[in-house]
C-alpha cells in the first residue's frame, strides 16, 4: 500500500502553503519549536509529533504509523531519536530500509548531532544544522522542504516573540546544572509543567515539582530548562534551601539584568524583584528555585510578574502559596528499564527489569547502581542476591524517604569507589561534614594546607588527583558538579561547588571509621574557621556568614577546642543577632553553652563571652527575666574575679542595663548607663566604638524616661562621632540616625524627623536589606513621622507593610512585632477598620501580658490604647474603668510627670466627660497641663493636646471665658509650632478633642 501513495510534497518551489509534520525526540523539543515557528510565520501549517518508541512495539510499525501523518514529515535527527526504546542501530537500519527508502518523498530530515547514526539514515537525506547561525539554518530547513526562502512578512509591534534559535543562549543564563544526557522519560510531567506555566495569568505562573528524596526533581527541572529555555530571555537557577542563600543568589541577578545598584545585596535584591515584577528589561524570564523545602521561609520573596517560577521541593505546602503542584513519583517501570539500559548497555531488558524492581524504581539509586554495574563483572542476579543478603532485618531506615534497599546498595557502591579511586571516598567523607546539598568544596582548597593529614593534604595539593576523585564521584552520580558561569574553566573543573544528595550524605556519614571521622571533621572545622570574614557587623560580608552558618551543625564545631573555631562561633552568633536570625542564634547559643561548660568549665573566659552573645539574642525576643539572671551572674562573677575596670565586666554591665530597660526599671538602667559611659571614657577614650555604644545606650535610657531633649543631645553626639569613626553607611551609624530622628519626632519636630528618616530608610534598605530588623524599625519610624506630620495616606500603607513583614520574619510575639502592631492598631482605630483595631489591640494586650510582668508600663500603655477602641465601639463604661486603671498603673510604673502618664491622663479626662464626670475631667486636665508644661515645655505637642483638652473640659463646666482663653492660646501655639494647615491644628480648630496613643519604645 505504501507504494501506491501519491506524494504530498510540492512538485515545485513556491507552490501553495504546505502542511509539515515535525517528528522529534523530547530531548530536541527546542529545535522542533524553533523550526515550527519559522514555518508558521511563513503561513505553513505545522503539526508537532513527539517521537516515542515503546520497546514492545516493532519499530517498522511505528514508522508506518508516522507515515500516516499529514503533509511532509520532517524528522529532527539526533542520537536521542534513535536511542529511544532503546533501539539498536541494526533495528533502525532494517526499519528505515523497509519504510523510508521506498517512499523518500514523504520524508525530510535535519540533523542536530555529531554522533554516529544508523547507516540507513542516508535515506532521509538530512541537512546539517550544527555550527551555524539562525539565518543559514533557516535557509537550509526551507531548502530541504522545497519551500521558498522569501523574506518574512513584517511583524506588527507587540506581536508575541517566537522561540530563540536553540544554539543561542538566553540573554541571561546562570546557575543551571549541566544537562543530563541520560535523562529518561518524564514526558507527561514536562508537558504538564509547560502548559501550567504557559496557561497561567501574569503574576501567577508558579509550579512546584514535589516528591520524596531521590526521585529526580532537580534533574526534571533542569531538563525543563533545556527543553523550553529557548522561549525565555532570562533563565536563573537558585539554591533555595535556605532563605539567606536564596536572597544572595537572587541578588546576584541584578548586574546580569543591567540594573544600576550599589554593592549591597539588599539594594540589589530589591532592584531585581522590581525588575522582574515590571518585566523590564525582560518580560520572558524563568526562575528555578531548587530545594525549596521550607515555603514559609521564602514564599514572600518569590517574584511575581510576567515570567515563570519553577520550584523543586519535598514539601507540598507550596500549594498554600499560590503555586500549582505536580507530584514527581518514582519512575514507571518502562522508564526504569529504558534508563538502566542506556546507563548499562550490557544488561538485557529482563535484567534491567529485575534490577528496577530490586531498587524500587528510585531514579537516584538506579543511576548510581547501573553506572558501576555496567563496568563490573557482577551479574544482576548476583547483585540482587548480595543486596538481599546484606540487609539486616533489625536495621531501621535512615529516613522515611529511603527505600529499604538503599543502605546495602550504597555499601556495595562505596566498595567499588574504594577499589578504583580511594581518594574519591576521602573527598566524599569530607563532604559529609558540610550540610547536605551544595557543598562549598572551594573552602577546602582555599584553607591553609599545613598540618593536614597526609591523605587529605595529598588530595588538596594535587589538582590531577583532586579532579580524578571528583570525576569518579560524578561518573557514578554520587555528586553533581555545579556550573559557575562567572568562574574560569580551571576553577570550575576543580569543583568549586558540588551537590551532594541528602540521602547519600546521611548514609556516608553514618558508615565511617572513627579515625577517619575525627580527621575529616577537624579538616572541615579548620576550613570553616579559615573562611570566617571576621567582621560580622559589616553587612558587605554577610554573604560569607550566610554560607558558613548552615555547616556549623554538621561540622560539630562546638566540640572543637581550636580558638579559631570558637571565634567563628562568636562571630556567627553576632551576625545572627545583627541580621535578625534570633531563633536560630538562640539555638546555637544554647548548644554552645551546654557543650563549652562541659569542655571548658563554668568560669572559662570564653563562657562569659558566649553568655554575652546568648543574652543579646534572648533579649531580642523579649526574655528579659532570663537575661537579667544571666547578666547579673556574669556581673557578680567578673567584678569579684577581675574588678570593675575589666572590659568584660563593663560589657556585662551594659547587658544588665539593657535587661533592666526591658523590665522597665529605667532609673536603675540609667544609673548603670551613666557609670558605664564614664568607665569607657576613662579606659578607652571618647572615640572608641564601645564608648559610643555606651553613649547610645544612655540615650535609650533617657528616652524611656521621657527625657527626650537629653536623649536628642546624646544621640546627636553619637551619630556625628560614628560618622567620623566608622562610616556614614555603617549599621551603627544608621541606627544612631534612626534614634536621632525618633527623638526629634517625640519632641514634635516632625518635619526635621521626616526628612532625616526618609534618607535613613533608603540607606538601611541598601545596607541591611529590606526585611532586616533594623530596616523594619527604620520604616516604622518613618511611618510614624509621616503620620505625625499629617501624611496619613502614606503612613497607613507603610505601617501595614512593615507589620506584615515583621510578623513573617520575626513572628507575631516578637517585641518588635508588638511595637508595630500597637501603632497599626492605633492608626486603624482613627482612620481604618475599627474591627481590625480591636482585634490587633486585644492581641497585643494578651501577648504583652504573657511576655511582661503585671505593672509593666507597656501593659498599662496598650490597655490605655484599647480603652480608646472600646470608647469608639460604644463600650464607654468598660473603657472608663480600663483607662482609669491604666492611668493608675502607669503612674505607679513611671511616675506622674512621665509623658506616658500625662498621655493616659488626657485620655482618662475624655472618658470622665463621657461618663458624666466633667469636674473630674477638668481637674485631671488642669493637672496634666501643669505637669506637661513643666516636663516637656509649653509648646510640646503633648502639652498642646492637654491644653486643647482642658479647653473642652472647661466648656463642659460652662466656664466659657476661661475655655476661650485657653483654647485661643493653644491654637496660636499650635499654628506657630506645627503650622496653620497641620492636621492637629485643623482638628483643634474644629474642636475635635485630642487623644493620645501609647507607643512602646525599643529598649
Element layout with pairings:
Elements (H helix, E strand, L loop, with lengths): L18 E6 L4 H12 L4 E6 L8 H9 L4 E6 L1 H5 L5 H11 L7 E5 L15 E2 L5 H11 L27 E3 L12 H13 L6 E5 L6 H12 L5 E6 L3 H9 L1 H4 L8 H14 L6 E6 L4 H4 L9 E6 L10 E4 L5 H11 L5 H10 L4 H11 L6 H10 L16 H15 L1 H10 L5 E3 L2 H5 L7 H8 L1 H13 L3 E3 L7 H5 L4 E3 L1 H9 L3 H17 L11 H11 L10 H17 L2 H19 L4 H16 L3 H19 L4 H16 L3 H19 L4 H16 L3 H18 L5 H16 L3 H18 L5 H17 L2 H19 L4 H17 L2 H18 L5 H16 L3 H19 L4 H16 L3 H19 L4 H16 L3 H18 L5 H7 L14
Helix pairs in contact: 2-4, 6-7, 8-10, 12-13, 12-14, 13-15, 14-16, 16-17, 17-20, 17-23, 19-20, 23-25, 24-25, 25-26, 25-27, 26-27, 27-28, 27-29, 28-29, 29-30, 30-31, 31-32, 32-33, 33-34, 33-35, 34-35, 35-36, 36-37, 37-38, 38-39, 39-40, 39-41, 40-41, 41-42, 41-43, 42-43, 43-44
Please describe what this structure looks like.
Strand 9 (285-290), helix 11 (295-298) and strand 10 (308-313) form a beta-alpha-beta unit. Helix 14 runs parallel beside helix 16 (406-420) and helix 35 runs antiparallel to helix 36. The model is unreliable at 1-14, 390-404 and 484-495 (pLDDT under 50). It is built from 45 helices and 14 strands. The protein is of the alpha/beta class and 1003 residues long.
Assembly state: single chain
As laid out across the biggest beta sheet, the strand order is 6-8-9-10-7-11
Described by strand count, sense and barrel closure, the largest sheet is: 6 strands, parallel
Task: Please give the number of β-strands.
Answer: 14
Secondary-structure content class: alpha/beta
Report the β-strand fraction as a percent range.
5-15%
- The end-to-end distance, rounded to whole angstroms, is 91 Å
> Which regions have little confidence, pLDDT < 50, spanning 5+ residues?
1-14, 390-404, 484-495
The level of helicity is 55-70%
Shape category: elongated
Total number of helical segments? 45
Amino acid at each position: 500500500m505504501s507504494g501506491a501513495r501519491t506524494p504530498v510534497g510540492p512538485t515545485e518551489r513556491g507552490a501553495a502553503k504546505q502542511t509539515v509534520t515535525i517528528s522529534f525526540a523530547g530531548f530536541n523539543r527546542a529545535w522542533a519549536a524553533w523550526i515550527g515557528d519559522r514555518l508558521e510565520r511563513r503561513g505553513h501549517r505545522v503539526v508537532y509529533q513527539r517521537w516515542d518508541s515503546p520497546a514492545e512495539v516493532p519499530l517498522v510499525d511505528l514508522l508506518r504509523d508516522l507515515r500516516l501523518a499529514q503533509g511532509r514529515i520532517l524528522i529532527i535527527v539526533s542520537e536521542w531519536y534513535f536511542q529511544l526504546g532503546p533501539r539498536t542501530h541494526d533495528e533502525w537500519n532494517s526499519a528505515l530500509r523497509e519504510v523510508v527508502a521506498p517512499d523518500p518523498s514523504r520524508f525530510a530530515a535535519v540533523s542536530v548531532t555529531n554522533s554516529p547514526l544508523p547507516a540507513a539514515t542516508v535515506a532521509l537525506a538530512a541537512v546539517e544544522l550544527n555550527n551555524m547561525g539562525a539565518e543559514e539554518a533557516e535557509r537550509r530547513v526551507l531548502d530541504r522542504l522545497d519551500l521558498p526562502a522569501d523574506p518574512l512578512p513584517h511583524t506588527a509591534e507587540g506581536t508575541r516573540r517566537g522561540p530563540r534559535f536553540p544554539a543561542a543562549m538566553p540573554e541571561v543564563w546562570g546557575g543551571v546544572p549541566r544537562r543530563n544526557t541520560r535523562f529518561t522519560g518524564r514526558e507527561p510531567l514536562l508537558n504538564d509543567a509547560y502548559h501550567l506555566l504557559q496557561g497561567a495569568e501574569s503574576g501567577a505562573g508558579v509550579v512546584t515539582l514535589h516528591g520524596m528524596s531521590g526521585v529526580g526533581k532537580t534533574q526534571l527541572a533542569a531538563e525543563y530548562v533545556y527543553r523550553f529555555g529557548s522561549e525565555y530571555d532570562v533563565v536563573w537557577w537558585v539554591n533555595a534551601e535556605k532563605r539567606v542563600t536564596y536572597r544572595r543568589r537572587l541578588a546576584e541577578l541584578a548586574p546580569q539584568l543591567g540594573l544600576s545598584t550599589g554593592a549591597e545585596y539588599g539594594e540589589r535584591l530589591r532592584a531585581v524583584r522590581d525588575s522582574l515584577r515590571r518585566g523590564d528589561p525582560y518580560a520572558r524570564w524563568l526562575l528555578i528555585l531548587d530545594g525549596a523545602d521550607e515555603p514559609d521561609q521564602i514564599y514572600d520573596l518569590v517574584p511575581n510578574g510576567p515570567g515563570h517560577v519553577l520550584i523543586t521541593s519535598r514539601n507540598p505546602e507550596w500549594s498554600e502559596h499560590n503555586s500549582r503542584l505536580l507530584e514527581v513519583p518514582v519512575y514507571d517501570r518502562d522508564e526504569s528499564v529504558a534508563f538502566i539500559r542506556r546507563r548499562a548497555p550490557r544488561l538485557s531488558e529482563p535484567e534491567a527489569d529485575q534490577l528496577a524492581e530490586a531498587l524500587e524504581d528510585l531514579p537516584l539509586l538506579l543511576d548510581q547502581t547501573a553506572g558501576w554495574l555496567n563496568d563490573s563483572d557482577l551479574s544482576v542476579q548476583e547483585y540482587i542476591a548480595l543486596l538481599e543478603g546484606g540487609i539486616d532485618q533489625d536495621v531501621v531506615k535512615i529516613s522515611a524517604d529511603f527505600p529499604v534497599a538503599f543502605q546495602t546498595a550504597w555499601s556495595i557502591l562505596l566498595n567499588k569507589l574504594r577499589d578504583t579511586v580511594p581518594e574519591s571516598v576521602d573527598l566524599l567523607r569530607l563532604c559529609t561534614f558540610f550540610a547536605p546539598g551544595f557543598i562549598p568544596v572551594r573552602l577546602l582548597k582555599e584553607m591553609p594546607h599545613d598540618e593536614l593529614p597526609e591523605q587529605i593534604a595529598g588530595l588538596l595539593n594535587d589538582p590531577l588527583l583532586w579532579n580524578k576523585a571528583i570525576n569518579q564521584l560524578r561518573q557514578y552520580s554520587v555528586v553533581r558538579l555545579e556550573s559557575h558561569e562567572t568562574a574560569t574553566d580551571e576553577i570550575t573543573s576543580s569543583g568549586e561547588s558540588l551537590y551532594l544528595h541528602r540521602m547519600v550524605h546521611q548514609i556516608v556519614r553514618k558508615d565511617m571509621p572513627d579515625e577517619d571521622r575525627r580527621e575529616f571533621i577537624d579538616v572541615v572545622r579548620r576550613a570553616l574557621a579559615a573562611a570566617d570574614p571576621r567582621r560580622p557587623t559589616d553587612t558587605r560580608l554577610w554573604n560569607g556568614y550566610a554560607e558558613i552558618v548552615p555547616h556549623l551543625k554538621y561540622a560539630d564545631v562546638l566540640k572543637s577546642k581550636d580558638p579559631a573555631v570558637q571565634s567563628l562561633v562568636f562571630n556567627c552568633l553576632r551576625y545572627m543577632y545583627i541580621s535578625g536570625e534570633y531563633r536560630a542564634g538562640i539555638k546555637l547559643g544554647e548548644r554552645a553553652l551546654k557543650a563549652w561548660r562541659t569542655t571548658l568549665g563554668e568560669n572559662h573566659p570564653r563562657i562569659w563571652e558566649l553568655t554575652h552573645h546568648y543574652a543579646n539574642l534572648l533579649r531580642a525576643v523579649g526574655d528579659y527575666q532570663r537575661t537579667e539572671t544571666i547578666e547579673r551572674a556574669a556581673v557578680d562573677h567578673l567584678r569579684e574575679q577581675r574588678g570593675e575596670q575589666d572590659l568584660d565586666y563593663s560589657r556585662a554591665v551594659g547587658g544588665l542595663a539593657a535587661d533592666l530597660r526591658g523590665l522597665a526599671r529605667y532609673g536603675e538602667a540609667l544609673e548603670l548607663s551613666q557609670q558605664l559611659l564614664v568607665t569607657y571614657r576613662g579606659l578607652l577614650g571618647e572615640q572608641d566604638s564601645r564608648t559610643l555604644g555606651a553613649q547610645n545606650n544612655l540615650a535609650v535610657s533617657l528616652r524611656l524616661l521621657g527625657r527626650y531633649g537629653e536623649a536628642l543631645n546624646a544621640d546627636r553626639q553619637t551619630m556625628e562621632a560614628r560618622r567620623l569613626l566608622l562610616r556614614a553607611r555603617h549599621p551603627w551609624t544608621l541606627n544612631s540616625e534612626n534614634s536621632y530622628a525618633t527623638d526629634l519626632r517625640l519632641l514634635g519636630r516632625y518635619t526635621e524627623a521626616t526628612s532625616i528618616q526618609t534618607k535613613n530608610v533608603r540607606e538601611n534598605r541598601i545596607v541591611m536589606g529590606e526585611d532586616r530588623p533594623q530596616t523594619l524599625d527604620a520604616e516604622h519610624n518613618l511611618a510614624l513621622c509621616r503620620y505625625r506630620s499629617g501624611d496619613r495616606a502614606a503612613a497607613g500603607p507603610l505601617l501595614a507593610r512593615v507589620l506584615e513583614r515583621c510578623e513573617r520574619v520575626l513572628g507575631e510575639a516578637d517585641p518588635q512585632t508588638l511595637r508595630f502592631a500597637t501603632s497599626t492598631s492605633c492608626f486603624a482605630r482613627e482612620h481604618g477598620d475599627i474591627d481590625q483595631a480591636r482585634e490587633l489591640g486585644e492581641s497585643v494586650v494578651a501577648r504583652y501580658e504573657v511576655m511582661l510582668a503585671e505593672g509593666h508600663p507597656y501593659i498599662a500603655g496598650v490597655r490605655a490604647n484599647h480603652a480608646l477602641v472600646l470608647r469608639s465601639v460604644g463600650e464607654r463604661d468598660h473603657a472608663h474603668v480600663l483607662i482609669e486603671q491604666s492611668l493608675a498603673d502607669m503612674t505607679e510604673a513611671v511616675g506622674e510627670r512621665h509623658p506616658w502618664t500625662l498621655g493616659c491622663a488626657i485620655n482618662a479626662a475624655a472618658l470622665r466627660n463621657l461618663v458624666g464626670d466633667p469636674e473630674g475631667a477638668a481637674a485631671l486636665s488642669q493637672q496634666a497641663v501643669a505637669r506637661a508644661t513643666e516636663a516637656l515645655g509649653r509648646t510640646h505637642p503633648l502639652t498642646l493636646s492637654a491644653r486643647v483638652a482642658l479647653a473642652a473640659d472647661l466648656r463642659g463646666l460652662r466656664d466659657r471665658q476661661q475655655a476661650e482663653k485657653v483654647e485661643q492660646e493653644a491654637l496660636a501655639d499650635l499654628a506657630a509650632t506645627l503650622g496653620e494647615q497641620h492636621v492637629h491644628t485643623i482638628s483643634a480648630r474644629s474642636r475635635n478633642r485630642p487623644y493620645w496613643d501609647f507607643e512602646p519604645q525599643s529598649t
